[in-house]
Specification:
Layout lengths: L3 E2 L5 E2 L16 E6 L5 H14 L8 E5 L5 H8 L6 E5 L13 H13 L8 H12 L12 E4 L5 E2 L7 H7 L4 E3 L2 E3 L8 H11 L24 E3 L4 E4 H4 L2 H13 L1 H4 L4 H12 L5 E3 L5 E3 L2 E3 L4 H5 L19 H5 L13
Helix pairs in contact: 4-10, 6-8
Bound molecules: guanosine-5'-diphosphate (GDP) and manganese (II) ion.
Guanosine-5'-diphosphate (GDP) binds next to helix 4.
């Protein structure tokens, strides 16, 4: 009764050959990492954490993408940290350059202005290409096309808790499309016209908006002005088929036409989040409370004591971002169908 069926449909009793006890079904999934050669050292820690906390027992592939060719050192360096398949890809030039309708002089001016104001990455041109790429293109890279689900990993992140199940299969089995750990507020100066542009898009495409979507997360008042809440996209476990869908591509193209990736500094986090909250049913979005996570400067640490007493986490519950003024986790849970987790670790 406890036999396991492997990918070929063969049946193995778990005790037959020990390794075959873990040949259970996998999702079509992998880790997607956009990175630069010089980030190798910071990336090593991220890969080590993901492998140690989860993937060494599951063997999902790693896909590394870069607007420049990866160096020999980079490739050798990451290969040493995993037994999984590793892919290295370069971003096509058309996905990391100015579309013809963007006025580059106007864009340069905008960067200078935002730089003077001291906004993070305000004067950075490459950061804008990166945000536009993460918003509109990573899910169409040829090396990702065989995948349904992805987990975004960045250099310098930490995972604080053992993950004793397969989050990709969790997504698949529960019809989840977008998963996050940290939700926060955006600097409005980086996205001053993102909401009005979105509103115009909705007006023209009302059929893209399901009734039971998660727009409660985006508004604090009846006026339906975006509160800048967004899911922090440096961690995402998501369904690539959503980003490849017509409704999302139409939205991305509409935003891209408006030029805000360059004239302002629209981030992929607000763009992904607004799309997920508007176009998905709210129960398709999931908060991975059990995934303790740090990306500088914020940490999400599961607060339930059992996670810590069982020895599975190494974070400090008093240091979780969730209770910070800037957190939007309360905005998520006040309207979500999923309940604030009370999960007890066996
Ligand atoms: P932050 O998290 O907003 O501070 O921005 P990061 O510097 O971490 O960039 C976000 C992600 O994009 C990370 O995975 C970076 O490695 C990657 N990234 C940022 N800029 C570039 C770039 O110019 N080229 C490449 N290949 N990756 C980049
Ligand atoms: Mn980062």
């Amino acid at each position: 009764a406890n036999a396991t069926r492997n990918a070929d449909g063969n049946l193995y009793p778990p005790s037959y050959v020990p390794q075959q006890a873990n040949v259970a079904k996998r999702a079509k999934a992998g880790f997607i990492v956009l990175a630069r050669n010089r980030e190798l050292e910071d990336l090593k820690g991220s890969i080590r954490d993901v492998e140690y906390r989860f993937n060494h027992k599951y063997g999902y592939p790693w896909i590394f993408l870069n607007d420049q060719p990866f160096s020999k050192e980079f490739k050798a360096g990451v290969r040493k940290l995993t037994r999984s398949e590793v892919r290295f890809g370069q971003v096509p030039h058309e996905h990391w350059s100015y579309p013809p309708y963007v006025d580059q002089v106007k864009a340069a001016k905008a960067r200078k202005e935002m730089g003077k104001k001291g906004m993070p990455y305000g004067d950075s041109e490459s950061y804008r290409h990166m945000c536009r790429y993460q918003s509109g293109f990573f899910f169409r890279h040829p090396l990702t096309l065989d995948l349904d689900y992805y987990w975004r990993v960045e250099p310098g992140i930490k995972l604080h808790c053992d993950i004793d199940y397969d989050p990709f299969l969790f997504m698949q089995l529960n019809n989840k499309t977008y998963g996050f750990t940290i939700a926060g507020r955006e600097f409005i100066d980086t996205v001053p016209t993102l909401w009005e542009t979105t509103r115009d898009f909705i007006t023209q495409h009302p059929f893209y908006i399901p009734k039971s979507n998660a727009d409660h997360f985006l508004f604090d008042t009846e006026q339906r002005i975006w509160n800048t809440c967004h899911f922090w996209s440096n961690f995402e476990i998501g369904d690539l088929r959503f980003w490849r869908s017509q409704r999302y591509l139409d939205y991305f193209n509409y935003l891209d036409r408006a030029g805000g990736f360059f004239y302002e500094r629209w981030g992929d986090a607000p763009v992904h989040s607004i799309a997920a909250a508007l176009f998905l049913e709210k129960d398709q979005i999931h908060h991975f409370d059990d995934i303790g996570y740090t990306h500088h400067p914020w940490t999400h640490c599961p607060k339930h004591q059992d996670y810590h007493n069982s020895g599975r986490c190494d974070c400090d519950t008093s240091n979780t971002f969730d209770r910070h003024d800037f957190s939007c986790l309360a905005e998520w849970y006040r309207g979500a169908t999923e309940k604030v987790p009370t999960h007890v670790v066996p």
